[in-house]
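Pasting as-is:
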Amino acid sequence: MMMSSEAGLLSARASVVWIAALCVVLVFHCGHLIRMHGERRWYHCAHVAMLLGMLYMYASVAFGLDLFPARFWLTVYVATSAAIVIWIWERSRQRRALGHLWIVVLVQQGAMIYMWAPMNYWLPLVSYAFALYFALETSAWLTRACTKPAPGPTVMGADGSLVLPLAHRSVRGDICMAIMAASMGYMFVGMQLVMSIPRHSQQLARPQELSVSGPGRRESGSETPGPTPELAAKEPARPSVETRPAASAETYTIMAGDSLGRIAARLYGDARRWPSIMRANPGLHPRQLRIGQAIKLPVAPAPR
């Protein structure tokens, strides 16, 4: 079942559009991966690895795909980044020419490491910096700036050029690279917004937002007097707004400072499980949570 379309940037509809676009890019890179050899093949292999991770992330948002844990993807991108660093260092040691696009690939791999790292440690400044970088990279691919030779000589190559024959010479190739960069920047913004605290949930709820009807209790806008001293003495004390409620196996009460990502991280240990909360609450908007609002939990949190 798809997630509600009211999830802001990461709605099911938007995720499906990105999935379709990334599938086209994946076919493009797989074709080059099969036909090419040597360094070019490894170049496209790195992009295929990134595309698979991005497709999985968008599919988990749209369809609730849950086949691999985040640590699996984190291990993949740490390993690929380490391999690229070692390869670049080895070419530098041998004073051999290095294609500047490998530096772009290394930055992309680093972004994937951050994207799959525990979201409890995400920083808005870092997330939006990555988003800005990928916006600039998207523009560079569309204007074909990424495929232009880097000016100036270098001590690394005997031919005085930093550029190896890795650049895409077709407009189609540059568009595919632009799509991949744009999808990464879009995901950074969408996920950071899910983790960020909604503005209105940073404030305490007004009394009428938490009031309930019943004998001796005041309803919103009602002039009914409060409970008598005798009734108040017998009535058990209710928790204050600042008290963190214990989540039951089925429901959770929104408190000040909550976001869907933070709730998923606290209850399930993984902020990326927030789409499952969305699917359990049709019509729920991650940026419109209300303090005191009860939401359904798809799976009972593990005891702590």
